[in-house]
Amino acid sequence: MTSRAWDLFVNVDGQHCRTICPLPHAQLNNIVVDRSTIEKWDQMSCQDRYVQIKDQLSAEERGLLASLLLHISGGDMENSSFWDMARSHALMTHDSKNFGDIWLRYKLRQGQTALAKRMFGEAVDYGLEYIFSFPVSSIIQRSDGIQVRGISGQTFRARKVVCTIPLNVLEDVQFIPPLSTTRREAIELGHVNQMSKIHVDVSNPELEGWNGMRFPGTLMYGYGDGILPNGNVHLVGFGKDEKGAFVPEENPKAAVDAFEQLHPMNIQRMIFHNWCTDPYSKGGPAWWRPGYMSKYQDELQSRHGDIFFASGDWAHGWRASIDGALEQGIMNAQTIAAELRPKGRLGQSRL
Question: Is residue 351 part of a domain?
């Protein structure tokens, strides 16, 4: 039922988005579809599209589709972009049969912590340095270089700066000279994802391969995520934007109750980080508003003098994913390396 509802939702062109988003890594700049067509579809919200097709769905399909859209966007139906759903479908090679394999099944073998440790380890191997617990207050460009100043007053200087500050946090950093009016508008609006994500360990071995859904509900989806060394099962639960009513660190019992409403379980431990209340993220993975991509993506990706913006929050393809962060990092690193390379040091072609 979910696949049928999703396919109907995204199939605005009769080709499962192949004609409107044939190249998800080049949404605005490809030879297949003109920009004005993209801008038209980018104005549509999830609610707009849902209203167009809801009469073709059963009550169960409507509930499944609505909950899935809220689960993916972390916003509400009105402020969540339909285009981001179309782009996501294109990233699945335009086929919902790939949803599970691409979005859910495969992950980093040792987790994101291991990836981060290896990245910082590689930095040290190449003679680079890093500092933690250094909240940035301002980034100042002058004729003699750039100063990155922390709230502690400590300052670092550089010829080039790569800024990976999340979209919803950029408003807390002062840029001198100021950012463009268009970029400031984009930052003020921010993205809409205020999802809940909570992990629990349960002593229910039968839930190892369990997937559950309840809509409406504080947590709408729960997934079994394997057996731990002690024999307990690890589950992950997801909810939509409930930031006004559900702050799990302030009311852990409400989080336990939300899991037990999904399915009876014996919770042994609960673990989470609330990205929405964290002042250095202010939300989950970026999900954009209707009209946001076509108006602001180019500007968010552009440089500001010698400050380069490289975040997965405004990536071309896998926006809000590690892949998107790598995409933007690589693209900006190539530009910086070329500009800092001593003149006359270009390699000779052997073709």
Answer: no
pLDDT at 29: 83
Which H or E run includes 227?
strand 221-227
Tell me what the mean pLDDT of segment 139-152 comes to: 97
State the Cα–Cα distance between residues 78 and 10, nearest whole angstrom.
16
**What is residue 270's three-state secondary structure?**
strand
SS3 22: coil
CB proximity list for 325: less than 8 A, separation 6 or greater: 164, 310, 311, 312, 315
Do both 266 and 249 map to the same domain?
Answer: yes
DSSP characters over 143-209: TTEEEEEETTS-EEEES-EEE---GGGGGGSEEESPPPHHHHHHHHH------EEEEEEES-GGGTT
- Residue 304: name the closest of 134, 183, 166 by CA: 183
Same domain, yes or no, for 175 and 306? yes
Neighbouring-strand partners of residue 157: 147
25 is in which domain, residue-wise? Answer: 2-105
Instruction: Please state the pTM of the whole predicted model.
Output: 0.91
Same domain, 145 and 15: no
Asked if 98 and 19 sit in the same domain, the reply is yes
Percent share of the chain, pLDDT over 90: 89
Other CB atoms within a 10 A radius of the CB of residue 322 amount to: 12
Same domain, 186 and 308: yes
- 243-263 pLDDT, tens digit per residue, is 888 999 999 999 999 999 999
Could you report the per-residue pLDDT of 46-64, keeping only the tens digit for each? Answer: 999 999 999 999 999 999 9
Q: What pLDDT was estimated at residue 347?
A: 60
* Number of domains present in the structure of the chain: 3
Residues 174 and 208 in one domain: no
Tell whether 65 and 95 lie within a shared domain: yes
- Residue 309: which CATH number? 3.50.50.60
Please indicate, yes or no, whether residues 41 and 70 belong to a single structural domain of this protein. yes
Contact 276, 168 (CB under 8 A): no
Angle value at C-alpha 10, between 8 and 14, nearest 5 degrees: 75
How high does pLDDT run on average in the chain? 94
